[in-house]
Write a structure and sequence with these properties.
- The chain is α+β, with helices and mostly antiparallel strands.
- It is 24% helix and 14% strand.
- It contains three helices and three strands, in the order αβαββα.
- A three-stranded antiparallel beta sheet has the order 1-3-2, with helices on one face.
- It is extended and about 65 Å long.
- It starts with a helix and ends in a 40-residue tail after the last helix.
Length: 135
């Protein structure tokens, strides 16, 4: 049983947390059949709490000019969420690796309004596929 084995490792080594890469491989292309190399399943199948924090970036490429964000997971035993969040906060404060996406640097054109437009909800333009409540 994986859950029991994980708890045994924590007990045998007096661990507060396990830290490991979020994924063994960089992201897969959208629509790819396989998501192999993902480590997030460990928390899911053992019922353990986990928090993911930024760990750095891959080298830049033509399709990812700033690189691909790489994360690490901090996994703990049940009911240790407070300890995990504290560890995550400390790691984030030390590492400070977050980069804003290139998209946020692009200029955005927006219409200038003299007044705020008034929008009146109408049931007439809601597709029938959506469940309707009372407006």
């Amino acid at each position: 049983n994986l859950t029991l084995a994980l708890r045994t490792v924590f007990a045998d080594h007096a661990l507060d947390a396990l830290i490991y890469p979020e994924q063994a491989n960089l992201v897969v292309k959208v629509g790819a059949a396989s998501q192999s190399g993902r480590n997030g399943i460990l928390a899911a199948v053992t019922g353990s709490p986990v928090v993911t924090v930024p760990a750095g970036f891959s080298p830049a490429t033509g399709t990812a000019p700033k690189g691909i964000p790489i994360g690490m997971e901090i996994l703990g035993l049940p009911w240790t969420e407070g300890k995990l969040l504290n560890l995550a906060k400390q790691v984030a404060a030390i590492r400070r690796v977050r980069k804003m996406p290139a998209l946020t640097e692009a200029p955005i054109e927006a219409a200038a309004y003299d007044t705020v437009p008034i929008i009146v909800p109408s049931l007439a333009n809601i597709p029938s596929a959506y469940a309707l409540g009372k407006l």
